[in-house]
UniProtKB/TrEMBL annotation:
Residues 4-316 form the Pyruvate kinase barrel domain. Keywords: ATP-binding, Glycolysis, Kinase, Magnesium, Metal-binding, Nucleotide-binding, Pyruvate, Transferase. Homotetramer. Its EC number is 2.7.1.40. Residues 346-458 form the Pyruvate kinase C-terminal domain. It catalyses: pyruvate + ATP = phosphoenolpyruvate + ADP + H(+). Gene3D superfamilies: Phosphoenolpyruvate-binding domains (3.20.20.60), PK beta-barrel domain-like (2.40.33.10), Pyruvate kinase, C-terminal domain (3.40.1380.20). It holds the Pfam family PK_C. It comes from Solirubrobacter ginsenosidimutans. Its cofactor is K(+). This is Pyruvate kinase.
Length: 462
C-alpha cells in the first residue's frame, strides 16, 4: 500500500451514489472525498458524509471528508434573454440592461475591473458606473443567457466572504465532523480568519483550505498561506478571471510557495475532464496531472469526472496510475529547501527524514498527537513513506491530504518503551512491513504530548 505518494480527492455526487461505487473508488485509490456544497441539499450532504465514514470503516483506513463551501457567487437574472455579444459592443449591466442578481453590483467594480461571464466569455471592460448601471465594452465575444455565473476582477469587497448559505453548510460540516473545510473565492487572509472564527465557535477542528481562484487571492498569496492549513489551486475560476494563459505559472508558483511553508496543496479543475464521457484520459490530461505531481502538489482532485461522469471508478484509477508513474521522476520540484530549521523539533524532523532516505528505510514511523510531526516530514517530499500513528481521534483523517503520509490510529502508550514497541507493531500490521525491515522512528519522550518530538532511532520491524 506504500506506493503512491500524491493523494487523490474525488467529488461525490449522483454518479457515486449507487451501491458499491464508493467502495470501488476507495479500492481504486481515493484518499479524500469532497462534498460540493454548491450542489445537493443538506440531506444529500448528510447522507454522503455518513457513507464516507462507513466506507472508511469497511476499508480499514482513514478517508478524509472535505466540505467545499460555495462562497459568494454572482449570477445573471433568470429573466436574461439569450443572445450573442460581439467584440466592441456596449453592454449595460443593471436595471437598464442585463440584470444581475445583486443590487450592489455597481459598488463592486473598479477602474481595473473586467466583467467575465460563464467560463471566460464573453468578457467586458468597465467603462463607467452610471447610477445603478455599469456600462461596459465587450473585449471577448460570446453568449449571454439566464443564470450564467459572473466574475468581477479586482472587485471591491462588497460581497460577503461567507454567505448565509455558507454559514448553514459550515454548521452541518461541524455537526458531521468534517476533516477539511474549503472556502471558495477567497480574496484575503481575513476571509480565512473569519472562517476559522466561525468554525471554532461551532466546535469544528477541521483543517481550513483557501481556494485560490481570484486574482486578488494570488496577489495576497503569502498572507493567505500563513493563516490557512492548506490551499486548493482552483484553476477554473482563476482562468476565467486572469485568462487561461496565466493559469500554469500561477499553479506552479502556488504549489512551490505552499510547500515551502509546509502547507498541503490540492490541484483541481478539469484534470481528467474528458473522462466525464470517455473511459480513458487524453494524452494532454495525463501530462497535466503528471506535471502537477512533479511540481510537488500534495493532492490532485476530480470534480465532475466522479460526481456526474460515466466513469467515476476508472477516473480514480487513471489518476492513481498517472500519479504513480510521474513520481518516478528524478526529482519532485516542490520540496521544501529551507536549510535552517526554525525550532529544535523541526531540526529533528528534518534529520529523521534525511536519515530514513540515506538508509533506504522501509518507512519513517511517526507517532503523533496532532499530526504536526508528520506534516513537518511531508514537506521535504522524500521517497521514504511516512507512517503516521495518530493518538487523537480524527487526526488520521486530517492527514489524508499530506504527501507521502499514510495515517492510522494508535493508542497512547504509558512509557516510551511501550510506545516504541506498539508503534513498530501497529506500523507493521497497517502497512504490511516485513519482519526485519529497517525503519526510522521519530517521536517524543513524553508520549501523547504535542510538540515534544525529540527522539530519532533506527529499528527493525519485529
Amino acid at each position: 500500500m506504500l506506493e503512491r505518494r500524491t493523494k487523490i480527492v474525488a467529488t461525490l455526487g449522483p454518479a457515486t451514489d449507487a451501491d458499491g461505487v464508493l467502495d470501488r473508488l476507495v479500492a481504486a485509490g481515493l484518499d479524500c472525498a469532497r462534498l460540493n456544497c454548491s450542489h445537493g441539499g443538506p440531506e444529500d450532504l448528510r447522507r454522503r458524509a455518513a457513507e464516507v465514514r462507513a466506507v472508511g470503516e469497511r476499508a480499514g483506513r482513514a478517508i478524509g471528508l472535505l466540505f467545499d463551501l460555495q462562497g459568494p457567487k454572482l449570477r445573471l437574472s433568470a429573466a436574461t434573454e439569450p443572445r450573442a455579444v460581439k467584440a466592441g459592443e456596449e453592454v449595460v449591466f443593471g436595471p437598464d440592461g442585463v440584470v444581475v442578481d445583486f443590487d450592489k453590483f455597481p459598488a463592486l467594480v473598479t477602474e481595473r475591473s473586467q466583467v467575465v461571464i460563464g467560463d471566460g466569455v464573453p468578457r467586458f471592460a468597465v467603462v463607467r458606473v452610471d447610477g445603478p448601471n455599469v456600462v461596459t465594452t465587450c473585449v471577448s465575444p460570446g453568449p449571454l443567457s439566464a443564470r450564467k455565473g459572473i466574475n468581477v476582477t479586482y472587485a471591491r469587497p462588497e460581497l460577503p466572504a461567507i454567505t448565509e448559505k455558507d454559514v448553514a453548510d459550515l454548521g452541518l460540516a461541524a455537526e458531521l465532523g468534517a476533516d477539511f473545510i474549503a472556502l471558495s473565492f477567497v480574496r484575503s487572509a481575513g476571509d480565512i480568519e473569519q472562517l476559522r472564527s466561525l468554525a471554532l465557535e461551532l466546535g469544528s477542528a477541521a483543517k481550513l483550505i483557501a481556494k485560490i481562484e481570484k486574482i486578488e487571492a494570488y496577489e495576497a498569496l503569502d498572507d493567505i498561506i500563513a493563516v490557512s492549513d492548506g490551499l486548493m489551486v482552483a484553476r477554473g475560476d482563476y482562468g476565467v478571471e486572469a485568462g487561461v494563459a496565466r493559469v500554469p505559472l500561477m499553479q506552479k508558483d502556488t504549489i512551490r510557495r505552499a510547500t515551502q511553508a509546509g502547507k498541503f496543496v490540492i490541484t483541481a479543475t478539469q484534470m481528467l475532464e474528458s473522462m466525464i464521457q470517455n473511459s480513458e484520459p487524453t494524452r494532454a490530461e495525463a501530462t497535466d496531472v503528471a506535471n502537477a505531481v512533479i511540481d510537488g502538489t500534495s493532492a490532485v482532485m476530480l470534480s465532475a469526472e466522479t460526481s456526474v461522469g460515466t466513469y467515476p471508478v476508472e477516473s480514480v484509477m487513471a489518476m492513481a496510475e498517472i500519479a504513480s508513474a510521474a513520481e518516478e521522476a528524478p526529482a519532485i520540484h516542490g520540496r521544501a529547501r529551507k536549510t535552517v530549521p526554525d525550532t529544535v523539533g523541526e531540526a529533528i524532523m528534518r534529520s529523521a527524514v534525511e536519515l530514513a532516505e540515506q538508509l533506504s528505510a522501509a518507512a519513517l514511523i511517526v507517532p503523533s498527537s496532532t499530526g504536526g510531526a508528520a506534516r513537518a516530514c511531508a514537506k521535504y517530499r522524500k521517497r521514504c513513506p511516512i507512517i503516521a500513528l495518530a493518538h487523537q481521534p480524527g487526526v488520521a483523517n486530517q492527514l489524508t491530504l499530506e504527501w507521502g503520509v499514510y495515517p492510522t490510529d494508535m493508542p497512547t502508550a504509558v512509557t516510551v518503551d511501550e510506545m516504541i514497541d506498539l508503534a513498530l507493531v501497529t506500523a507493521r500490521d497497517f502497512a504490511g512491513l516485513e519482519t526485519g525491515a529497517r525503519v526510522v522512528l521519530t517521536a517524543g519522550r513524553r508520549t501523547g504530548t504535542p510538540g515534544a518530538t525529540n527522539l530519532v532511532m533506527v529499528r527493525e520491524i519485529p
